[in-house]
Amino acid sequence: MIAIQHDPFDIGALYRRLSDGCHGTGAVVSFVGRVRDFNESPEVTALTLEHYPGMTERALENVVERARQRWQINDVIVVHRIGYMTPGDDIVAVLVSTVHRQAAFEACAFIMDFLKTSAPFWKKEHTSSGAYWVSERESDLASLKRWEQ
Amino acid sequence: MTLTHLNERGEASMVDVSDKQNSHREAVATGRIVMQPETLKLLADGDMPKGDVLATARIAGIQAAKRTHELIPLCHALMLSKVSVDFELDTVEHCVRVRAFCRLEGRTGVEMEALTAVSVACLTLYDMCKAVDRGMEIMEVRLDHKSGGRSGVWQRQEASSAADSHAVLDARASDGPAVTEETPIEIRFFAELRERLGVEKLSVLPGHLSSPTLMAVKEWIKSQVDAPQALDQARLLCAVNHDMVQGDVAVNPGDEVAFFPPVTGG
């Protein structure tokens, strides 16, 4: 399941959706990305997330498909929120279920790494002294290197 | 959308247009005059009592575009760089379709000029043909497309109907200066780039590009916006039909092209 939504998600409900009744699943790895109160500026009060409708869904489907080709995956859930969020809010959830844990850990990291560098989302951070668009991080681009085969 | 009368802190701010660059502005308006089939035939055959109807109506439309400011109270006088008025004889719906195209480099749009050109061309057609047909009706005078300026491109969205497909078929079949039915290329901007350009969407007819390529689309955008340098940043990403592309690629009618900064989701 891939979802882009304004509403908050319930990670417990996503976990149950992924794993309930799946007796061949031996491992579930989940990642949740959250809004921090510091980033490029020390006092982030909120952020707004923009996306490119149509292309974002397609980019996420591509990333999930590439992960499926690389690891034996039983199921994947990717939920990404858009709109206005404040520190402590969840932004993104990626859950991967597999037979054994190693594949689940790796596939979850793989999906997040490519989501961050190829899915068209943009963050704007709001602080008490104004708002700015978040810049890309070199470390995000560098972390793709480990997936080069 | 950004409000042009608010600054970054949300305070009211007066827009100073003296720094506003002249942009390349275009407008297309259309209309039609419906008549008896016999009237249309006389017109097509050049047998009207007053002579060459279409040539006269074309000149009337062009002259009218140039004098729009004299007719419409709050219109600026514009130095139009191009005005064209074309006709298409539609024997299915027995009407003459009129299309006017206006272009200028300036600080104000040319929609009124295009609409005036269509209106006066239609009135002239009426005048030239009224001796044989007083029941003619001037209909559907409207703006079809405009580009340039802060509000960017506006394109009439049309539910495809039988009448439209007739128009397309007829345009292909007619010998005269046919209306080219081109599908525009849609252009989208996101995040910081959208804010710097002050525009979210543009659309361009493929015929207005120097070549059917992404680079030509970019050059065209630069001619339309107030902050063309925003498109020169090194890390600008581009997608065609929702797929990321690198370098120059071909762009086809109906494609959706998007420009945006590096992505920062997750």
Automatic annotation (TrEMBL), chain A:
Family: Belongs to the MoaE family.
Oligomer and partners: Heterotetramer of 2 MoaD subunits and 2 MoaE subunits. Also stable as homodimer. The enzyme changes between these two forms during catalysis.
The protein's enzyme class: transferase
E.C. no: 2.8.1.12
InterPro entries with a match to the protein in the record: MoaE_sf, Mopterin_biosynth_MoaE
Keywords attached to this entry: Molybdenum cofactor biosynthesis, Transferase
Name this polypeptide is given: Molybdopterin synthase catalytic subunit
Matching NCBIfam families: PRK10678.1
SUPFAM superfamilies linked: Molybdopterin synthase subunit MoaE (SSF54690)
Pfam family, one: MoaE
UniProt catalytic activity: 2 [molybdopterin-synthase sulfur-carrier protein]-C-terminal-Gly-aminoethanethioate + cyclic pyranopterin phosphate + H2O = molybdopterin + 2 [molybdopterin-synthase sulfur-carrier protein]-C-terminal Gly-Gly + 2 H(+)
Native organism taxonomy: Bacteria, Pseudomonadati, Pseudomonadota, Gammaproteobacteria, Oceanospirillales
GO biological process, one term: Mo-molybdopterin cofactor biosynthetic process
Species of the source: Kushneria avicenniae
Keyword Transferase applies: yes
Pathway where it operates: Cofactor biosynthesis; molybdopterin biosynthesis
GO molecular function: molybdopterin synthase activity
UniProtKB/TrEMBL annotation, chain B:
InterPro entries, sorted: Beta-grasp_dom_sf (IPR012675), MoaC (IPR023045), MoaC_bact/euk (IPR047594), MoaC_sf (IPR036522), MoCo_biosynth_MoaA/MoaC (IPR050105), Mopterin_CF_biosynth-C_dom (IPR002820), Mopterin_synth/thiamin_S_b (IPR016155), ThiS/MoaD-like (IPR003749)
Region (Disordered): 1-21
Assigned EC number: 4.6.1.17
Residues annotated as catalytic: 127
Enzyme class: lyase
Family from the record: Belongs to the MoaC family.
Protein name per Swiss-Prot or TrEMBL: Cyclic pyranopterin monophosphate synthase
Organism field: Kushneria avicenniae
